[in-house]
Amino acid sequence: MNAPFSKRAAGVNLSRRDVVVGSALVGGALLVGCSPADLMSAGSKVEVGAFGPFIKIAPDGLVTVISKHIEFGQGNHAGLAAIVAEELDADWTRVVVEQAPANAKLYANSTAGAQLTGGSSAISNSWTQLRTAGAATRTMFVQAAAAKWGVPAGEITVKDSVLSHKSGKTAGFGDLVAEAARIAPPASPVLKDPKTFTLIGTDRVRRKDSVAKSTGTARFTQDVQLPDMLIAMVAHPPRFGATVSRFEVAEALKVPGVVEVFEVPSGVAVVASSTYAARIGREALTVEWNEDKAEKRGSAAIAAAFRDIVAGKGPADLKWEGFDSKGDAAAINAAKAGPKVLEATYEFPYLAHATMEPMNCVAAVDGNKVKLTFGSQGQTLDQLNVAKIVGTLPGAVEIETLFAGGSFGRRANFPSDYVAECVHIAKKVGKGRPVKLVWTREDDMRAGYFRPLVIHGVRVSLDKDGYPAAWRHRIVSQSIMKDSPIGGKGPDQTAIEGAAGSPYLKAIPVVDAQVAFPDVGVPVLWWRSVGATHTAFVMEHTIDQLALKAGKDPVEYRRALYRKAGADRHLAALDLAVEKAGPKATDGWSRGVAVHESFGSVVAQVAEVKLVDGVPKVGRVVTAIDCGVAISPDQIAAQMEGGTCYGLSAALFGEITLTDGAVDQGNFDGYRVLRMNEAPSVETHIVPSGNPPSGVGEPGTPVIAAAVANAVLAATSKATQRLPFAGQTA
Amino acid sequence: MTATLDVNGKALSVQADPATPLLWVLRDELGLTGTKFGCGMAQCGACTVHIDGQPVRSCVTPIEGLSGVKITTIEGLGGSHPLQQAWVKHDVPQCGYCQSGQIMSAAALIAQNKAPSDDEIDEAMSGNICRCGTYQRIRAAIKDAAAGKLDLAQAAGVAALEETAEEMAASAGATSRGAGR
For residue B1, which of B84, B75, B64 has the smallest C-alpha distance? Predict the structure, then answer.
């Protein structure tokens, strides 16, 4: 049975982040004694037209859908526009998308209470909101036509932005826009029966930005050029937590084009008239760092400490927090590995997001007014952080959100790291002069906010039929939420989601699952699919090892557990993927299966793999997804293709290491990522569903690593206990 | 120094240190921002342009020695190049940041090879990273464009592409925004 919509819409993955961002707002509001909504809307320049904050219609009939969410690849602009166009019965070829300004009152993520794109929620949180907006606007046009033509509104039809009456009268949206704008919007317009959708679910729902992005005309932060704009680069400390001790500016100032050099909280800024001058100026700088409070451990030492904790040899004062636990765990806690008991440890390294566009921002500070022009993923959070730096109200921080060259979570973090850095510089420059902060690839890769290094320890006993009888699970990770503006109740969900809530744990009578969060001075952050980046691997690869131990087929093994857990959506996705994959693997390739639910969607994959020089090569990947109503089948497929590549890149090669606290990798030579010759061929099949839409941007990422490990297990009987695969021999 | 560069068929004069990578001259001095900065060390291909028809990484190519060669950027493809049409038809881009470089590498490939095999595509394209993982659509689009297999009437957004092409033709030689600062 499908989970009820309310629960899925809220999403286990979003809930904690919602609370945090919402509370950040409240915290700011308390500061000045007004409501969050007033605070956020104060001073922001948003003119809401007759058709509300999401729809504009021009006299020529062009429909503009205003997106409250940033587009950084996910295809949400197409999906959001399609939701409006469907209910409005607009001509899809005459619909364009515009990015909303920063204003939490109008443009908050409905599940977050703040303007934020994350948790794969853009479509799901906008679904009812934009359907209602589209339907209300349609009603206004119908009423305007009815009044003008003197006919009953019920006799008017709308198709492709044209209103018609059986008498032969017709008018386009453009013809009636003035009259329609004078009609009061209905409070509760009637929404379409999804069975009557003509646009949603069709291959006509395509990206709106492909032309701009195929001609070099799409505007990214990197491309912003404003009159009098300066370019800034910052010398950062080599270790996290270090600060500037002293610095020499003379040589840097000799570089032609360098305008100013000064200290900011995150390092030493070099401000210049061009990017090249800023870079050469920074190279000429001498900085000494105070490393008293810096993290000086290497990643090997951190991993060793985590391994000790998993093995129960951690510091006595480190707290374990339970989740999903039930039954009497005494037996499993005392059990030793053997024919009926599987024991496994899994290690996951730090990962960089490594977006194609390194982090950057353009800021202009003029007294208490700030204008930011960049790819903002969390506008409200950015407004709050920037307001604090400048000493102004968040509403006085205007943000023009641009396309971003990827984010995968990186552009939204609690202190708004790179945004804050840019604003500190622009504040010092002052007078409203725009400053573009440019990070090099090395700046970006060494700035932290990595996917945490995580270690899991799992011990599972089998019952007489070969199914799990008791499951002991220990997770050790840094907490992503620890640096959030507030604490939360219960363990940090971002480290356990996917293990917590797993249908397998539901199907097992005894579970003892606990997590511990040691402190490490390396900044960590969500990374496309967050907790699932490791929990999906652990759960899915463990299941295949258990099936192997029990002498059962891994697909049948899963089916039995899903039936027991009532996980019908998992079962349906698995069945569809297996059916579409066909009965036999391609000659010479072995198959692995994995299934995981994240962000309200279930993804099942069958991967075909062969080992080349000990490293898996992935060929065909058959994917099935249940994401509720499929708005754009083509963009869902695109996200499965891309999400799979992103997950596979990390699984095969992804690893950030630190030596004595300094990040070893700086560029793509050291941090290897998936390239064309390594990319699989991904087929996507969508489970038919009438449920409201759920996530698509992230759920395609976490499944592939386990599917590949399971294929390797099938071929070699060897389990994978550490990622990346390419680091196995290291 | 003052250098004269032949960019997209126009002779343009720029003031820059001879060691300056072409990338930054194109972007900061000539305002041709379609060519992207990704890594600065010829690892990712986002900065790919053509020099006399050959794909090069402009982030590691100093402007010194570029007089007398023909430089072509994404803006110089004109906007309705078969690859650009194929990119739109397949909705290749996601975040879009790497796609100028991808298209420039592909354009150099299909200029010489009208029927590239998968291996040839791999060889020509493996210097271009796409973190969104659009590789399989890139492959499909290259094959379509190389074979001239474009059903333009079906290609979404072709009208818009033509409009863009006209705008780009008007500014392909670049204005000198930022030049001479």
Answer: B64
pLDDT at res. A598: 98
Calpha distance A69→A81 (Å, rounded)? 11
Mutate to test the interface with A, among B8, B58, B94, B151 (most CBs of A within 10 A): B94
Q: Has residue A227 got a pLDDT over 80?
A: yes
What integer pLDDT is reported at residue A119 of this predicted model? Answer: 94
Q: Which of A204, A442, A646, A676 is most worth mutating to test chain B (most B CB atoms within 10 A of its CB)?
A: A676
The phi and psi torsions of A157 (rounded to 5 degrees) equal: -110, 155
Cis peptide before A491 (omega within 30 of 0): no
Q: pLDDT tens for residues A570-590?
A: 999 999 999 999 999 999 999
Quote the ipTM score: 0.94
Pairing of strands A658-659, A662-663: antiparallel
Contact flag A274-B91 (C-beta cutoff 8 Å): no
pTM of the predicted model as reported, rounded to 2 decimal places: 0.93
Q: In the numeric block, which tokens belong to residue A373?
A: 């022009």
Q: How far is A208 from chain B (nearest CA, A)?
A: 8
* pLDDT bracket for residue A210 (50, 70, 90): very high
Question: Which run of H or of E encompasses B9?
Answer: none
- Alpha helices per DSSP H over B8-150: 22-24, 82-89, 99-112, 118-125, 135-146
User: DSSP letters of A174-236?
Assistant: HHHHHHHHTSPPPSSPPPPPGGG-SSTTSTT---SSHHHHHTT-S-BGGG---TT-EEEEEEP
d(CA A720, CA B13): 58
Measured distance CA(B175)–CA(B172) in Å, rounded: 8
> Looking at per-residue confidence, does A668 or A46 come out higher?
A668
Rounded to 10°, the helix B99-112/B118-125 angle is 130
Nearest to B47 by CA among B68, B19, B28: B28
- Rounded to whole angstroms, how far apart are CA atoms B1 and B4? 10
pLDDT at A26: 35
| pLDDT tens for each residue of B112-129 | 999 999 999 999 999 999
- Of A219, A273, A355, which is closest to B131 when you measure between CB atoms? A355
Q: Does A228 touch chain B (CB under 8 A)?
A: no
Smallest Cα distance from A73 to chain B, Å: 4
Of A213, A667, A681, the CB nearest to B99: A213
